[in-house]
Write a structure and sequence with these properties.
- The protein has 150 residues and is mostly beta strands.
- 0% of the residues lie in helices and 53% in strands.
- A hairpin with a 5-residue loop joins strand 5 and strand 6.
Length: 150
């Protein structure tokens, strides 16, 4: 028989979670009305225990308004986020150092061009492009490697 386990993640200051994305590596990224993005790691428990263990990894802070969408790049090495501030941030993991063992991500691209809230985005399979959609009635295709719109 199939068993279903419900996990309650309340790390967005009890604010709504507006976006969830998964990666085959077992990673989850969530975005919320608290202006923050969170990365989580999942681990399958032993069969006897069943279920999934979810561990908080780190926060990505940089938006000034609610974050509507967060998506892993196909390889999982980048995360793109978009918010009500009209800004898209592209994040990369910073290599670990001995004096900073915890995982850290930094935004390396700030994409501006929408006039209002950005509600969705998707990556190209080669990770060079992002397509974003906004309530300003526009979609923009971005070259992530040369931060510009096409």
């Amino acid at each position: 028989a199939m068993r279903i386990h419900t996990h309650f993640i309340a790390w967005h200051d009890k604010e709504p979670v507006l976006s969830v994305d998964t990666h085959p590596s077992g990673r989850i990224v969530t975005a919320g009305a608290d202006k923050d993005v969170k990365i989580w790691q999942t681990h399958l428990r032993e069969e006897a225990e069943g279920g999934v263990e979810v561990t908080f990894v780190c926060s990505l802070s940089g938006h000034t308004k609610a974050v509507n969408v967060a998506r892993f790049s196909p390889s999982g090495t980048m995360v793109a986020t978009a918010a009500d501030d009209g800004v898209i941030l592209v994040w990369k993991q910073v290599p670990a150092r001995s004096d900073r063992p915890e995982e850290t991500w930094r935004s390396f691209q700030i994409l501006r061009g929408h006039l209002s809230d950005v509600n969705d985005l998707c990556w190209s399979s080669d990770e060079q492009f992002l397509l974003t959609g906004s309530i300003d009635n526009s979609c923009i295709l971005w070259d992530v490697l040369k931060p510009k719109l096409l």
